[in-house]
Write a structure and sequence with these properties.
five-stranded mixed sheet, alpha+beta, 5 strands, 2 domains, 7 helices, single chain
Length: about 150
């Protein structure tokens, strides 16, 4: 963990407690997770109890307290995507990455999760990689897309 970079992120937001969530998001964007040491630095600099920061990080699903891969994959398994073949897309993603939903591969390249809706049901089945929505997927297309992230 680069303590100087964490401090820079905190200072960028003016050391304001009201910026806690954005600070945590920026740190996670940098590190791909929120290590305890970073949370302790945030607590100290913002003068916010560590327990409040831990509550925030466990309340919001967007935060991860375990290391995540460089590329985060979310496969929508909501109703619209499900009926259009999301399970086959998910199966291909699992085969290509070698991981199951909720896991990160050993090389820290990919983290995989399923989501109930990405808000673009007309494009289903949909997969999100690093916040980029990829729609109208078929298994072969999903496999080809993942090759771009190898």
């Amino acid at each position: 963990m680069d303590a100087a970079r964490i401090e820079q992120i905190i200072n960028h937001h003016g050391c304001e407690a009201g910026s806690l969530i954005q600070i945590l998001l920026d740190i996670q964007n940098e590190l791909h997770w929120l290590p305890r040491e970073a949370l302790e630095m945030v607590s100290e600099k913002l003068r916010v109890p560590l327990s409040r920061i831990q509550h925030t990080t466990t309340f919001y699903k967007a935060f991860s307290l375990v290391p995540r891969g460089r590329h985060e994959i979310g496969v929508c398994v909501g109703t619209a995507c499900h009926v259009r073949g999301a399970s086959r897309v998910l199966e291909v993603v699992q085969n290509v990455t070698g991981i199951q939903p909720g896991e990160t591969d050993a090389e820290m390249k990919f983290s995989l999760n399923t989501v109930n809706c990405l808000g673009c049901c007309a494009l289903g089945p949909v997969m999100e990689i690093d916040a980029q929505h990829l729609g109208r997927l078929v298994p072969d297309k999903a496999a080809d897309l993942l090759k771009n992230y190898q």
